Amino acid sequence: MEVQLQSILRPSKDICDIAALYYHRYADRIELDGYFNLFYIEKRKAYTTIERLFLSIRSKGYGSLLVYHDREEIDKIVLEAEKEKSYKIELPYQRYQDGVFWVAATVAEGAARERQSGGSHDGDVLCDDRGTQGHDGDDTRILEGMFVADVEDRAVRPVGIGIDICTYRREPYVSRNLTLLKERILERQELDVSSHVRIYVVDNGKTLEQHKEIWQTVADSAGRIQIFPNKNAGGAGGFTRGMLEILREKEAHHLTHVLLMDDDVVVEPDTLVRLYGLLKTLKPEWEDAAVGGVLMREDHPHILFCAGEVWENGVISNPQKNLDVRDFDTAVCPYLTGVGNEYDWYSGWWCCCFSLNVVKEDDLPLPVFIHRDDIEYVLRNQKKGLLFLNGIGVWHKGFELTFGGSTLYYDIRNELITIALHGTGNKKRVALRFVMRALTVAAIRMRYQDAEIVYRGFLDFLKGPSWLWKQDPVRTNDKIRQSASQYVPVEEIIERLPEEEAADLQRQLDAFWADLSMDRVVETPKQKEKASWIHFVTFNGFLLPHDRTRIKMLTSLDPPWDVFRKKKVVWYEPGSKKALLVQRDFRKMKKMLGLYSKVWIASRRYLDASLADYQKNMVLMSDGKAWKEYLKEK
User: Fold this and answer.
1) Within 10 Å of residue 620's Cβ, how many Cβ atoms?
2) What is the three-class DSSP state of 168?
3) pLDDT tens digit string along 442-475?
4) β pairing state of 197-203 and 225-229
5) Each residue of 220-241: pLDDT tens digit?
6) Secondary structure letter of residue 517 according to DSSP
């Protein structure tokens, strides 16, 4: 049986228009050696039953097709350039255990191989907006196709994918992604995956019904796209509602997997082709493994933020993040092409696929609203394995250029729950250190309200899993939002400041944007200044007279120690262009320092019992019956 594995892709203005992610072009040839067109051999060997691999192409205007393994040319196929013709070329899959396959096509032999601008890193593009993903910008030349496998019928798995999209008032993203998926997947019957996908959109904001384009897309989908208005129970509640709907229709539509996908992402439709092909060919030992989504940066689309991260006692780490995959050597690095970490990684829910043998009515996510809501569920099922593959993923905005605000509450409360369930060592000590560190960061940044939010998150964690299920998430979120630091457009702060301070802040703001680059975003976390003894002894300069700086602008890229001896600080969010003005206030600092003793006392009295309560009861409570009650409007 022939199984489609991955399409040959080209840049597209409505998805990604960076040519070097797909190909490099020369005077006489086009080399399809970009990240999205590489075939990762080691992963396919480890995860799948594939024994014979082919490249199925349609070509016109090219004289030959060159097959490469890594950088070595291993085969040359003569093409009939004068007419449009289809070819099925077997690749030497059995010969290699690792590395990558890719192909190049030549227009005419002997032409000078001078690189054109489309293949450089300067951003020039060759776009295909006709939906075929294959024309070379010239009607006289065509090159399109797909990697396919011949697999024994008994080794092919039945697969049906329910896409679970949770959204809250992000209509432009939802409209674009639904249109792309409908036009490039659901309506393309030549794709095997086309008839094995259904889309479930959970509308936490209950606003999609007002969007005509979205409802027209739904109406044109023959019932394969559905929208479910839902209580605003956060990402956890929205995704779980989608899981419940997919489980309800599992038998009727032969669904085997659920693909969770954020609403604010840019999706490459071929993600579905690759995911479907991978799932159909999985070996028995990986049949219930999750498939994580590679996360690319929407603000810098050539940057791969992560393809699997490690969680350990509240710390998320990944030394390989922010990779520039325009570079061939980076795109084939062991982190992306190798195997062996399947039981170590976790993946966020921006794009993550689970087997419905794992997602069941008696094994659902926790009702933790938003932020870090995905970590616990992935860790809970980590023993099944987690796989990654190039081209299965999405683009999302970078995380470094914003602060928490009200989400800090969920970062604290939800991380403590995850520590209770999946932490190692002395969990009480780990949890207490986590909270104390968060209080300290708030203190040295002079962000007094953040400290109150941290304390509130800790106290609500101590209330245990029964409280979590009984509380109304909408009311809780409203209260947290009201008490959190309120960011405003930076222009409003500039208008309120005295003239000299306003001018000084504007200069710093202009200098920041003039200096901002992807290099700074990538390198700054590695170079963050460490505190010296004087920072600790003086509580980051708070016990010393302030210096003569009128006002200091800082961002999330700056270490908190830069507040040292400052009187007035503006914390600026480049992602939203909003800011928060803080300044020295001994009364507020004294109150903040009192929170340390309150946390210590509460931990002595209640932390052991709370940790035990979560370990014993939290997951047991997370079944379909509890969720249906939780999602009722109150």
Assistant:
1) 10
2) coil
3) 999 999 999 999 999 999 999 999 999 999 999 9
4) parallel
5) 999 999 999 999 999 999 999 9
6) -
Residues 6 or more apart in contact with residue 235 via CB below 8 angstroms: 166, 262, 349, 369, 370, 373, 374
Closest by CA to 411, choosing from 352, 369, 349, is: 369
Nearest to 197, CA basis, from 267, 129, 260, 257? 257
User: How much is the pTM?
Assistant: 0.92
Q: How confident is the model at residue 178 (pLDDT cuts 50, 70, 90)?
A: very high
48 HSE (CA, 13 A, CB side): 32
Tell me how far apart the alpha carbons of residues 190 and 180 are, in angstroms, rounded to a whole number: 16
Contacts of 445-448 with C-beta under 8 Å, sequence gap 24+, read: 445/560, 445/563, 445/569, 445/571, 445/582, 446/563, 446/566, 446/569, 446/582, 446/583, 446/584, 446/585, 446/589, 447/485, 447/571, 447/580, 447/582, 448/582, 448/585, 448/588, 448/589, 448/591, 448/592
DSSP letter at 114 equals P
CA nearest neighbour of 259 among 124, 151, 175, 164 = 164
Maximum Cα–Cα distance for the chain, whole Å? 82
Cα(18)–Cα(24) distance, rounded to whole angstroms? 11
d(CA 234, CA 373): 9
How many Å apart are CA 329 and CA 312, to the nearest integer? 29
Q: By C-alpha distance, which of 100, 93, 44, 91 is closest to 70?
A: 100
Which whole-number Å values give the CA distances from 427 to 235, 419, 462, 607, 621, in the listed order? 27, 7, 14, 10, 21
- Distance between CA atoms of residues 424 and 430, nearest Å: 8
DSSP E strands in 433-515: the ranges are 488-489
**Amino acid found at 122:** D
